[in-house]
User: Fold this.
Amino acid sequence: MESSLVKDNPLLLPVNKEMTAYDGFITVQERDFRLRILLPPDRQLKQARLHCCWQLKHLLHGYEHIVKQRLQQSADLVNFILELKTVLEVGLKSRPECRSIPPPQYYSQLILEMETLGWGKLLFIDTEFRTLRLKAEDSSGRQHALTVKLKSKSTLEQLHSQFLLVLESLGEFWDVLDEIDSKTWILEPERPSRADSMRRIAIGNNVSIKVEVDPRHPKMLPECCLLGAEHVVTPLRNKLNANMHMWNPDSSVLHNLRDVLEIEFPSPATHEKSSFSVECGICYSYRLEAEIPDQVCNDPRCGQPFHQACLYEWLRALPSSRQSFNIVFGECPYCSKPITVKMAAQKA
Ligand code: ZN
Ligand code: ZN
Assistant:
């Protein structure tokens, strides 16, 4: 018993050889509480007396009857201390003001570090002074925010300059995407964040290319996927495959895409976005949750786009359709030409 008592509570030690008096600390949620336990000569736990520090007394206020009951019921001191800690954890939870408050040096250090860094960089600090958000500008003038949970050993200035280094390493990646975002129509994501490396760029009516830019090698040939009706996509795919070797890593992704596909991308300067966001022919909306209509009738005279989920449900409901594995074969609701659709992937 004694060995596991010391193992669980290394700061609580017997102070006499009869082992009837213990003094020291018990630790709950990273806080130490002073405690003295006096046992009768027969070491019966039921007769034990507890002397608690004022913080412990304060926390156990209202729980005295439970502590007494545990003292009566616990098999030995190890079990009793375990029970006592459980009660203390509950007490700490119900009294948020008793949670550990950092020492005054914590605040003076924080103010000192903010002064070094510059108060102008502070965007937000929570009421407990534990989480703060800092402004950071990369060398291209892009604004970023860094959220810091104040626990680390590094100073705010160190964290901030580490963050700036990471920003600089991603500068080329954002240059590539900024050019695409400003000179083309982006169909997806709807509002790209700095973390988004995918762009779906409009090429024409119901034709688009999905590119996945590698943040570490942003100017290399990205992963590309052409989407749209077969008769438009096939020639573009052939050009992509034939001209891939022309990809020039010194040039931007947008310029390379233009050269390799031999096209001009419609841009905000030349086209309205509405000409590329044609609604689904079944539900008559553009966005269905996050999905946009990316299934297109392959008949060149029709070319009607549909949401995958809409087309799948529509075709499945028709007796003339047939299904093979996860593909449904049926007729386009608009022109009655053959159309196929894969079963929509289940959203996790
Ligand atoms: Zn739809
Ligand atoms: Zn059709």
About this structure: The chain has four domains: 2-97, 104-169, 179-275, 278-348. The pocket of zinc ion (ligand 2) is lined by residues 297, 299, 302, 304, 332, 334-335, 337 (CB under 6 Å). The chain has ten helices and 16 strands.
